[in-house]
Amino acid sequence: MELTFDDAAAAKIQPHLGPGKKLLLTFEDGVGQYSQHAMIHMMIQFTLNVVAQTAPTDGYNVVVDSNLGPILIKDYSAEDLDEHLTVHLNQTLNTMQLSGDGGVIDSDMGFLDFTEKK
């Protein structure tokens, strides 16, 4: 499995990356500390998370190659993903769209940097 960020999406994400950080692609199912909510409806939702390299990532046991480096996912979330994935930034709405071989997977993929000070 591989994920490619378009130039605009990469430009949005890259300032959040650096030494001591890693990326997670979180299936929003309410499981684990990085999932923001459980799905109450029939939509598939994902969030791209930036976490510290030392942050616990229990359950994120599959590595997806990307043009921004490795991304960890929960193994069972692969069922909702395709072999070739892309992330496109809609610059008008400042939202990211996750797509695969079969079309759009999440038209408004979230982005959370857990390393930012609140």
TrEMBL record:
InterPro entries: ATAP_core_dom, HesB-like_dom_sf. Pfam families: Fe-S_biosyn (PF01521). It comes from the Bacteria. Residues 1-112 form the Core domain. This is Iron-sulfur cluster biosynthesis family protein.
